[in-house]
Every structure is written in structure tokens, then in C-alpha cells.
């Protein structure tokens, strides 16, 4: 059996195994290219000696092996995986050296400590410390991998992701299955298996029922855009070239901020020693907003926001830049005085990353009985930032939209509590 395995220095390389106890080395996600080394001639040698071989890899690697072999082999089973993109392992090495200079003993993508959908990584440092990071909000590598900022040119126009597939079998995570079939329990993970030809179907059918926890045949359309197998095509983020240039000069996290943030992660030095992140007075600052969604007016010394459309969904924000990025796990004071007319019972206040849609609710205000626009509401709360790249204050349009609804703001204040 051949597949991608970690090396001792945290590169990924295709290896061949013949012991069941080594299967763990080929399991689990590895979000980077694997080096093929001399695996193709090794596979051919085994096939010619009539050994049974299972080869697993990205669709392009499976296609490459088929081209190298030049003919079909009855004793070869090809398994390709649903692949989003496979950036150079050089990026991952720089990430490890930059963010964990003390050294890493073990690293795992898709850690399931918090469930299948948690998008969590785990690692063990050389001093024995165990760390967990959940998703793009906490981990800079996931921040640029899942947003396709790190997507390499050869993956951008991939010809191997689509159907018909090159493997006899295709496997992967069945993302989104819970949305089309709510009866399926997804907490521990659900895999998709595609039988692409009769050989693949034969092997799947040969698995004893007792070895399968649960199986269900579903329409292939449910796969959606997973791995770009049937819908859509791969894509790159517009900031990719900036990231590729920055990563040559900057530490990993700084290169990510440089590429993603409109200000390249640079803030006025005058605020470095100040605890104040936002002191909003309507005479000096304005919101950044979508002009076809929002209106901003200055009335009687106060800022008043209206939503032009009678009803809008989530994803339409009014934002205001902070003086600097918030710091992870630091406690902040949040104060605001406002009046609101809305049909909503709750008004959420957020902080946001200027370079993406990632955000955090810092306070949910219960406005029931106070949402008629006549009463001033004061909030004085404390929150902790869940990551260290939030640099905007944010309001959402969906809770304010509606005829004659508005949000009137007197002041907003955000300051670190420990300074």
C-alpha cells in the first residue's frame, strides 16, 4: 500500500508499507504537496512481480502514476482523494519554524477533539506541551489554506479534480451532508466513497458489512462543490501574489497579515503604547459600508445608520477601523450608547478581521421593549478577543433592516482592560 506520510522533519512523502500496524502513517489530512520520490518505479516493480498494490494520492498523482505505467494492471487499485489544493511543503515548514521556534514533536490536521466540523489542529511541542487551535481564527496556516491565498498555480487550473475521475475509487470528507440529510449524525465525521468503475465497485462490495459502521447510498449531486469533482472549478484568492512575495521576506503570520489586510497589517505607531483601540466620536470618524445597502447621516451631533433595503441577509456590514489589532485572550472594555428602531429582539456587536469575513460577537444586546427608537441604551461590558488579528468594529445590516428602522450612535469605546 502506498500513500502520503509525514517525515521526521515534517515534510510529506509518499511511502510504501506492507504491515497493518503502519496504516496510521498514511491516515489523516496533510494540507501540502507530498514528494513522490522514487515511488512510481517501486510501484511498477511490485506490479510486475504480481504483488497487489493500493496506491492513494491526489488526483494529479494518480493520473501521473497511470501515465508512468502506460498500461492497466489487474493487481493495482487506484484511490484518489477529494482535494482542494496542495501548496508547497516549504510554506508549512516556514509556518512551523516561525510560530513554534521551540520545536514540534507531533502535528495533526483535522483533530477531532472538538468534533468533525471543528476544523481543529493539534500539536505537541518538544517540551511536551500540547496545543490545540480551532480553525482560521486561531491558526494562520489554516487562514491562508482554506481561503486559497496559498493555492499554487498548478492547482488553480487543475485538470484532474473533475469527473471522470482517475482513481478506481474516490474518497474524502462528505462536507455538507448534514444539510441535505439532517438524520445523518455528523459529529464523528462522514466520509464519501465514489466507485468510479467496476473494479472500484468490486473492491467496495467485498468489504464485510461488519467492518462498516454505517453506509447509505445517496445522489452524487449531494457532493456539491467538495473537491470540485462535479461543480465549480478551483480558484485563487486575489491576495495570493502579495502573499507569495511577502512570505519570502516576513515571518509567516506577518506575511499573512500583509497579504490579507488592506493596510498590510501596519498601524500608526502613536497607538502602540495606548490601551485605547477605538474611541468613536461622530465628528471625527465614519463607518466603512456598502453604499447600496447602508446610509450614514450626521443628525443632531449623532451618527444615524439606515439600511436602504427592506430586508437583507447576513454578510452586509458597516465597519470601523480600530487603532490596532486586538490581542488574543486579553480582556477589553466595550462601551456604547445608542438608540435603535428594529423588529429584532437582539442587536449584536462584533469585531472583525479587515482582511476576511472572520468575526466575533463581543456583545449581544437584548433590545426587547427598547427597540422603538425612543430609549437610549448604554452598554458597559467586558470581552476577550479569541484571536490576534481583529482590527475592525462591525455592525450587521440584517438586524436593522426594515422600513423606518435605524441605529443612532452617541459613542463607541474599546480599550484593553489590563493597561
Helix content: 10-25%
What's the count of strands?
20
State the helix count: 10
Distance between the termini: 57 Å
The ordered H/E elements are EEHEHEHEEEHHHEHEHHHEEEEEEEEEEE
Low-confidence stretches: none
| Biggest beta-sheet profile | 6 strands, antiparallel
Integer-rounded radius of gyration: 26 Å
Proportion of beta-strand residues:
25-35%
Structural class: alpha+beta
Q: Topology, please?
A:
Elements: E1 2-6, E2 12-16, H1 39-48, E3 53-57, H2 59-69, E4 76-81, H3 89-99, E5 104-111, E6 120-125, E7 130-134, H4 135-138, H5 140-145, H6 153-156, E8 169-173, H7 177-180, E9 191-195, H8 198-205, H9 240-246, H10 252-260, E10 276-281, E11 288-289, E12 294-299, E13 302-307, E14 317-321, E15 331-341, E16 346-352, E17 359-366, E18 377-384, E19 392-396, E20 406-416
Parallel strand pairs: 3-4, 4-8
Antiparallel strand pairs: 1-2, 5-6, 6-7, 8-9, 10-20, 11-14, 12-13, 13-20, 14-19, 15-18, 15-20, 16-17, 16-19
3D architecture notes:
It is elongated, with a radius of gyration of 26 Å. The protein is of the alpha+beta class. The chain is built from ten helices and 20 strands. Strands 10, 12, 13, 15, 18 and 20 form a six-stranded antiparallel beta sheet that branches.
Which tags fit this structure?
18% helix, elongated, 10 helices, alpha+beta, 5-stranded antiparallel sheet, 419 residues, 6-stranded antiparallel sheet
Provide a compact summary of the structure.
The protein is built from ten helices and 20 strands.
